[in-house]
Each structure stands twice: as C-alpha cells, then as structure tokens.
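pasting for the record
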Amino acid sequence: MIDRMQRLSFQDLTLIHEASVKILKQTGIDFNHERIAGLFKANGFTTHGTRVYFAETDIYKALSTTGPAFTVHARNPASNIKIGQESFVFSPTGGATNIAGTDGTQRQATFEDFKACCKLVQTSDQLDIGGYLMVQPTDLPWDTANLDMMLAYMTMCDKPVFGASGSGKEAADTLEMAGIIFGGREKMLEKPVVLAVANTMSPLRFSKEEGDVILQMAGWRQPVVISNMILAGVTGPVSLPELLALENAEILAGVVLTQLVSPGTPVLYGSSSAPIDMRTMVSAVGTAEALKIASATAQMAGFYNLPCRAGGGLTDAHLPDAQALAEASLMLSTVVRNGAHFIYHACGQMGSYISMGYEKWLLDEEICRLVRGMMTPLIPAGETIDTDLVNQVGIGGQYLVHPSTFEKFRNLSASRMFNRKDFSRWHKSGGKRVEEQAFDMLGPRLESYEKPPIDQGLEDALNAYVTARKCSTMPLARRLN
C-alpha cells in the first residue's frame, strides 16, 4: 500500500520517546504547585522545589494503568460516545472572543452566541460533544461565566459534556453540576460523564491552575486531555523533531500525574502545536508544518496506546472562503486518517482561534460528513462482490433503472450544502456561493432546535447550585447592585 502521508517508523517514534525521556530526566517539568510536587516526592520522584524529574520507569508504570479507549456517558444514553481505538468524535471550536461575519467584520461574542452554539450542537448529526467556552461571552462576569455556560449546556443539550477547565474551581463546579445529573461523586467514580482539557505552559511548565484541573478531574476519575500548543520558534524549537520531543515530554508528565492521583483515570494525549509566522507573530495553523505536527502527535499517542486529541477544522482565514475550507479540510482529514480520536475545533474555528464563524461552522459540518463517509469501509465486513449483477447487465448495458440502483443509491453521500447541480440549474436557483448557502441555512437550523427533555428536579437543582455559587463568588458590591 502506498500512503504518501509521512508515517513515522517504530524507530522514529522510539527516537522521539528517548529524547523526551532525556529531557524529563535532565531538566524535568515545573508544575508550579507545591501539593503536586509533594505528591510526586511521596511516590519516589526526584524533586527540586516544584520541579519534578522523571525516569523512564516512572513513565511506563503510569502507562500501565491507562487504557486505549473509554465511553463518556451522556444525559441521554443514546448520545453516549466511545473515544479511542477505532472510534473518533467531533467537538466544536472553543475560546474565541469574536464572531466573524461573511463580510470580513467581527464583533464580540455574547452569551446569546454561546446559547446559539448549544442549539447547533444539539441539532447536529456530526458533533458528538460540546460544552465549555464554545465562544467566550464578553457580556458575562468572567469570575462566574463558567457557571452560566455549564448550566446552559447541561440544560439545553443532552449530549456528553466538555467541562470548564480554566481553573481548579471551574473544574470542581463542572464536576459538582455533573454529579447532580449523574448521582454524585460515587456514581461518577464508576463511569466517565465529563471530560476536560489541561494545557501545559510551554516550555516544560504547567500553571498552578492547570495542575488544579488535573487534581480535580483525576480525583473524580473523569477523563483528562493533557494537551499543549507549542509555537515553533517562540515557545518551542523551530525544528520539528526537537519540537516533538518537547511536546511529548510535557504530555507524558501530565499523563503520569493523572495516574498518580488515581490510577486508571482515562487520559488523552493531545496537542495543537504549530509554527509561528515570523512576519506577523501569529500561530500558523494552516501550514504544512502544522499538518505534520498533528500527524506525528497522533502517531505518538498510538505509540503509547493512548487516545489522541487533535485540532480539526483549523484555519488562519478570517472569512469562510476558499482558504478556510482548504485548510480546515486538510487538517480534519489528516488527523482522522492518522488516528486521532477526540477532534477539537472540528467546526467553526477561524482566524487562528480568534473568532468563530456560524457559516464556517455549518461548512465544517459538511467536511465532517465527507470525512466520516471517507472512513466508511469500501467493502463492509462479510459482504462479497456481486459479479452476477455485472454479468447480468453485460456489455454496453445501463444500471440507471436496475433494481439494485433503486435499492442502494441512497447510500451514496449527499451534501446538504455543496453544489451538485449543473451550471444552468445552479444559476437559475440563485447562483449562490457556498457561504451564502450556509448563511441562508443558519436561521432555519437554529429555529429547528427543541430543548431535550430534562427532569424538572434536576434542572431546579442545577439552577440552585449556580445561584448559590454565584452568591459565594461575586464581590459584595456586585451582589448588592
């Protein structure tokens, strides 16, 4: 078989692993967290202040308690998802403070935009999970915004929860709210119901806040995505082999911590590293180097038999134009083909994470649909090739009215948005560009949303929790106004 996408050999992967072990042994990782450093020291690790040094045996001991796949349970059991092995899931973008228009303008994101994202997730046949920070609402107090976002998602959607992870307190809130739905911590210790990301602070550091996220999530045995975004030339080497060694060292350190807190905690290996454009000092997520890093990251995760988190429909473009779709399609298809399992930013990401575009979201869903179709087996297991059909039609015959065509033509992929008409029909129907089609479809899509059923007692309990937490968090002056 010929696959021109670069596949790293076992020797290549081992070389990166060995380089990472050398980094972890000689330089270590600074967790900026006394409790975490104490946990490592109590388990026999060499520490210096909050810096921790790792031996190769420490890494393999931690990996021995991880697993290649796990199931995240949803409020609606029909929406449960498996992450790992042959299963992959799509999650929308997150973190953008701006909403991009099709005319190149931008405006600040609001809480109404976040709730619109909830509606798009719930009505999507491609997105499997959603939640925290799909956009950053600029009209909410930041110290309690996580509560409003989690409450909105948990009541407006019945798909699995992507939890708040800006700090340990945010993660704790998410876990307590998930506990209201799923029966408390004891029940959650038995099954994953919410996952969260813990990002490194490259090079070779974790912030105290992200360390707290790991402690909280692993303490409840909920899945943790250990991830980083190394910018080649700024927070990491320009040379990709050295960058991958650094990336791998940071992720492995986080993986080890999850297993020290609670062996068996589901953990994902992830990264969205990319080069920096030295002319603009902006992360260049649409470059060939970013694709190669994503491919190698998925392969390194496979090397350790861990599920992989990767970026999806990433683009540097500020419009849902040809650049946006080209870059998004290349990245999404690359990470799925190379074995990633949790595809973050699958829909809506624009401008190197600065903005979210509704039209781009819908266009990305079309790309997700195409990629899923591309991954469907050409010859399903157990099926044979029907040579009787070919012999029956014979030389010079036609298949248009053959019964087999009527039986199976609906199995062919069909786009909901991309043009399949000839020029005349396309022109007569308005001759619209694809982003215009997406704009026209957005309103009806949002209007089609129906709130999924939720037990009133659960919803009341969630509201009561958020109200109580806001009262305890808000400054007195703001509570009195």
